[in-house]
Design brief:
about 290 residues, 2 domains, 8-stranded antiparallel barrel, 4-stranded antiparallel sheet, about 50% strand, globular, disordered N terminus
């Protein structure tokens, strides 16, 4: 699951027809459907010869727009199964809740060679993420739960994105609301501008001020969070093909070698028996908007 983001010292180390299957019985295909908030429908058929879906099972994935026209089709083998998350062959993560698709995250490579960037779903999942790396030759490491590339800001906020950090302004207050499945401590937001997904290129443009992390949930919540601008450029100065992602983050700790008081440390860690990518919590019916003062 590559689309989980670690933040290192303010830097993101982040047609139709039958599917031909060699090993699995096509008669055992199960169909799962779901829609993003733009109205696109995702239809995933998994062909498994066993009771439980497992890595190596074949699938066909169809994407249709709001009018019912086919956007594209792809197929392959499931790479990994973790609880109810199924990672497809192009590292797209699909969450199946019961029989319905509740989340798809990633960039889908279609059979015609084009790519489709998945839009935002009504529910997002914070997943376990342990990370480490080097920044300017210094080791950084940390642990948190976060949503990664699940939320496209333009999907949930329709006004001009330039209201986020206009010229001469380095701080912004954001109002975030939604419904959390459980209590989430030290909740914050990171804004990412991505202009090339494969290979990945982008910039972390802003993140939560350390003293404004909030505790939210369980249930409905509404909080205001101060975020600090990390990237000097304005959103309008980035490449035109870019996408602004909103990463919901539950910070546990973030350390820098040689700097014992650097970053955030809430004296919490991910449980040892919880693998990276495992779902910690969900947030539904979320909104995010700048507070204009």
């Amino acid at each position: 699951m590559k689309r989980i983001i670690g933040i290192i010292c303010f830097t993101v180390i982040i047609g139709f027809g039958f599917l031909t299957c060699d090993n699995n019985d096509l008669s055992k295909g199960t169909v799962h459907k779901g829609k993003d908030i733009a109205g696109n429908e995702y239809i995933l058929t998994i062909y498994s010869s066993a009771r439980n879906i497992s890595a190596g099972d074949d699938y066909e994935f169809i994407i249709m727009n709001e009018e019912g026209d086919i956007i594209g089709v792809t197929s392959g083998e499931i790479n990994n199964v973790l609880d109810n998350t199924y990672t497809l062959s192009d590292d797209v993560d699909v969450v199946i809740d019961g029989t319905e698709i509740s989340s798809v995250v990633g960039e889908i490579t279609l059979k015609d060679g084009t790519t489709f960037i998945v839009r935002t779903f009504p529910v997002v999942y914070l997943r376990a993420n342990r990370w480490e790396g080097l920044h300017e030759g210094v080791k950084n490491w940390g642990e948190h739960y976060n949503t990664g590339y699940s939320i496209i800001l333009d999907d949930i906020y329709s006004d001009s994105l330039d209201v986020f950090f206009p010229a001469g302004k380095n701080t912004m207050k954001l109002k975030v609301s939604g419904n959390a499945s459980k209590e989430i401590k030290n909740f914050g937001v990171v804004l990412l501008y991505v202009w090339e997904h494969n290979p990945w290129e982008g910039a972390a443009i802003a993140g939560t001020a350390s003293d404004t992390y909030k505790n939210i949930g369980p249930g409905d919540f509404e909080v205001e969070i101060d975020i600090i601008r990390w990237e000097e450029r304005l959103i309008s100065e980035f490449p035109d093909n870019g996408i602004v992602y909103v990463d919901f983050d539950n910070q546990l700790f973030n350390k820098k070698e040689g700097y014992p008081f650097h970053g955030h440390d809430y004296n919490e860690i991910i449980p040892d028996d919880m693998p990276n990518g495992a779902i910690y919590a969900s947030i539904r019916n979320f909104t995010i908007e700048p507070v204009i003062e």
